[in-house]
Specification:
The model has no long low-confidence stretch (mean pLDDT 91). This protein is 46% helix and 21% strand. It is flat. It has helices at residues 2-21, 47-65, 102-115, 118-130, and strands at 34-42, 72-75, 83-89, 132-141. The chain has one domain: Alpha-Beta Plaits, CATH 3.30.70. Strands 2-3-1-4 form a four-stranded antiparallel beta sheet. By secondary structure, the chain is of the alpha+beta class. This is NIPSNAP domain-containing protein.
Length: 144
């Protein structure tokens, strides 16, 4: 068995050397699709109210403003997070350069209309945020 592992190791090093001999050249991804993945941990007993706010306000504001909706939302059944939400980044990495994007402005204007006033919209956002005890956000590129 040790001989087999030694031969396999030598073979892998030989093959990897073949790739190292090719000239390296710059190459961009062709039409990369970027996604923002957010994992949320809600305070105990608060997830249902948080989901009500998402459905009654956030989703309606996105629909009204014609801003991107999540591509996927999962209720987690294991691990430390309660929910995982995935958004397609329509502008790719370039979208990360906005402090406040035009879509953010349109969304908050719709949220204000639905809530009745900017103060009420902010109050609802604050209530939702009070239910979150932890979150983690990651950036990912579509693998295939």
């Amino acid at each position: 068995m040790k001989i087999f592992v030694s031969i396999l190791t030598c073979f892998l090093f030989t093959i990897s050397g073949l790739y190292a001999q090719e000239e390296m050249k710059a190459e961009k991804y062709e039409n990369p699709q970027w996604y923002w993945i957010v994992k949320i941990d809600f305070a105990p007993g608060k997830m249902n109210r948080a989901k009500e706010i998402i459905e009654d306000y956030f989703m309606k504001a996105s629909e009204d403003a014609a801003t991107p909706m999540p591509k996927m939302a999962l209720d987690m059944t294991s691990g430390e997070y309660d929910m995982l939400v995935v958004w397609h980044m329509k502008d790719g990495i370039e979208g990360m350069n906005w402090k406040t994007s035009p879509d953010d402005v349109k969304w908050f204007q719709s949220m204000t209309k639905i809530a009745g006033s900017p103060e009420k919209a902010q109050e609802i956002l604050n209530e939702y945020e009070s239910y979150i005890i932890g979150s983690e956000a990651d950036l990912g590129r579509m693998a295939w």
